[in-house]
Amino acid sequence: MSHERMSPLLPIGAALALGFGATLLAFGLLTVRDLEQMRRAPEVIWAALCGVPQADDVVTVPLLLGGGTVGVTVGAILIALTARSGAAA
User: If we measure between CA atoms, which residue out of 12, 11, 30 comes closest to residue 68?
Assistant: First the structure.
């Protein structure tokens, strides 16, 4: 039986992505002023991606929430890949 050494990059990347995403989500949730601002977050992110100018304070919370969601999702995918590669070895 041969034991190949796993690269530590995948678990480290997963931990960094999860930590980054969780931090952004926490800061986003702490800075939400009301539920209306949270409800409009996807709309504001889409408008910003389409190039529609927004006021500075309108974009901050949706970007924090969106970036946090992406970070947590990427971290979860990397953890799944790490578990799969660990099981295959």
Answer: 30
65 Cβ contact list (under 8 Å, min separation 6):
24, 25, 28, 29, 38, 41
Contacts of 12 (CB under 8 A, 6+ apart): none
DSSP 8-state class, residue 89: -
Over residues 50-73, the pLDDT tens digits come to: 888 877 677 778 888 889 999 999
Residue 36's pLDDT is what? 79
Q: How many helices (H) and strands (E) does the chain have?
A: 4, 0
Torsion sign (Cα): 48, 50, 53, 54 = negative
Close Cβ partners of 58 (under 8 Å, ≥ 6 residues apart) = 44
As a whole number of angstroms, the distance between CA 7 and CA 53 comes to: 43
Q: pTM of the predicted model, to two decimals?
A: 0.73
